[in-house]
């Protein structure tokens, strides 16, 4: 464990023993001798490890018993702002909470390149404009890649990687003046955001909510508030006032958004409100920009950061507010590497930083709803949409009575509604949460279904890419002529619809309409997707076909009809969160309709209109739905009324994974000691990914149980075999 109690500032004189946490996959803090000139806790340092030098942070006084004089010395202290106690405590507590080794957690906080001075980053490259004397393919690619990323500054290595060209191509363009080489902008502050600029005039509801949030921020203490309001009720407008208050106090604010594609509109709104754009942090931002942001955040030269979940690990100088927008969004849960939920980590970080948290959503997660019910979070409601716009009227279409022929998915009633929109020059959205052309490809000669060789998953036909794609591992292959099982040719057939196939039906039914298919895989880059979304908002399409990408926050003023092709889709399977997810997704999608002056309508195609979840969605009785759902979870002792952890064991060898799981199950005394129950080992929900078999154990404990320490004691009893990977998922998304 990490010793979260260690924190506090300490100075070490040359030669004293210090504990250094490195980002190397070791399980503990290592002891070194403080360098000439000494060092302090939080300093970024380079230390020798075997034959190499690695990055680390001075974590505290060393704890080993080795004579300090015989320890290896810290090589040097890097020129970077030291890591504050608050961030070190956060890393330690987050590691304890998620049962992640400290070094892996530290890696999340040191993702900025060029800590200290990295010679490769002293110069950056910027697009100057103009044309080279001769335009080669490689040169064109380089220029295009720079444009795509906003013509910002790049390092040589990064640019050659982005454009897929050799560095000599770039140097050639520098010689010609098309690209300029500059000193790296290391300490360039972001433009000043002015919180004194006037905001919009708020409605009475909005003003009350914003005043309450403002007071929370002004008090300078920790607190979490659920800001609940239907899409379009002005949540963003309201929390921007809390951001303004935070900036007035001279503290920094962080806004987390679930999708990069959403940030375009959001950045513009911030600019409207505060006169300048905020700093951005996500995977689409260049390394040079990241380094700049990382340094500026530490020095206070970035007042507001808009980012993806990893922005939670930035070294803020004085963080006063974290907004988690669309807090229910599943993308806040990191499902790779370190498994953490950004919503929960935001609350943890804020509590350590004496900051406020605002969780904004139209359809909060059950966890957040329950925390508000229990009085742990405050709750503010915005009851109505801003201005004249009304919530859409929602209705079910009973598919049992639709009488559709095979391979047709749009009922006559929905067709009629779409046609009416086309005539009125309004937009219609058809929602189907399935990427690709068809989810299944079957051989009509032998019944074989094409599956991924490496995963327990079917290959999905993507006609646009002309390939079969595995949605688990990303493997693709061309569509075969003959069945891979029986060898008969010309018998492979698609089964079921994906958005691409739905697109074909729409084009047949409405040949005169302009159709846009919005699915993440159809766009080469986030920028291209953003452009498409903006074009649609301005009316460039009549019918939009989309996956859950479109459910999130986009504002399409001309959209007045939402048709859900298969409202039952998310209700299949055994996931206990299925009801919650479907409820959220359907309400979100429906919320896309009728955002401007025109009223909207949402039609849900379903085979089971009596299903309680479908009925709850239609009735709009949200509190009733949450109460029923909460009662069910409480009765079953499930989160948030009980605690759970999933342990996934993955190995190329299924037997090995099961054997290890059974060994663990036999040694469950530490779990029994806290009254926890153990289930499994059993095949994980996806039993094989990338050639690795996956076996899962589930641990269930009472709400107040000290789950993590018990898990740590339990797992420490056995060392996994070399081939086996063990990952712990606290509060798993599916159970
Ligand atoms: P939400 O975040 O709840 O979806 P937004 O804050 O995006 O809602 O508001 C929806 C739309 O209504 C936006 O276009 C916003 O600019 C506008 N709006 C909301 N409140 C006001 C207000 N008080 N004055 C002017 N426009 C507003
Ligand atoms: Zn696969």
TrEMBL record:
InterPro entries given in the database record: DEAD/DEAH_box_helicase_dom, Helicase_ATP-bd, Helicase_C-like, P-loop_NTPase, PriA, PriA_3primeBD, PriA_3primeBD_sf, PriA_C
Catalytic activity, as annotated: Couples ATP hydrolysis with the unwinding of duplex DNA by translocating in the 3'-5' direction; ATP + H2O = ADP + phosphate + H(+)
Annotated Zn(2+) 1 binding sites: 443, 446, 483, 486
SMART domains with a match to the protein in the record: DEXDc, HELICc
SUPFAM superfamilies: P-loop containing nucleoside triphosphate hydrolases (SSF52540)
Residue intervals of the Helicase ATP-binding domain: 216-382
UniProt entry keywords in alphabetical sequence: ATP-binding, DNA replication, DNA-binding, Helicase, Hydrolase, Isomerase, Metal-binding, Nucleotide-binding, Primosome, Zinc
EC assignment: 5.6.2.4
Record-level Gene Ontology MF annotations: hydrolase activity
Top-rank taxon, per record: Bacteria
Cofactor mode of binding and number, as noted: Binds 2 zinc ions per subunit.
Residues annotated for Zn(2+) 2 binding in this entry: 452, 455, 470, 473
HAMAP family: PriA
Function (record text): Initiates the restart of stalled replication forks, which reloads the replicative helicase on sites other than the origin of replication. Recognizes and binds to abandoned replication forks and remodels them to uncover a helicase loading site. Promotes assembly of the primosome at these replication forks.
Matching NCBIfam families: priA (TIGR00595), PRK05580.2-2 (NF004070)
Family affiliation: Belongs to the helicase family. PriA subfamily.
Subunit structure: Component of the replication restart primosome.
Protein name as catalogued: Replication restart protein PriA
Species per Swiss-Prot/TrEMBL record: Acidimangrovimonas pyrenivorans
Source species taxonomy: Bacteria, Pseudomonadati, Pseudomonadota, Alphaproteobacteria, Rhodobacterales
Name of the gene this protein is made from: priA
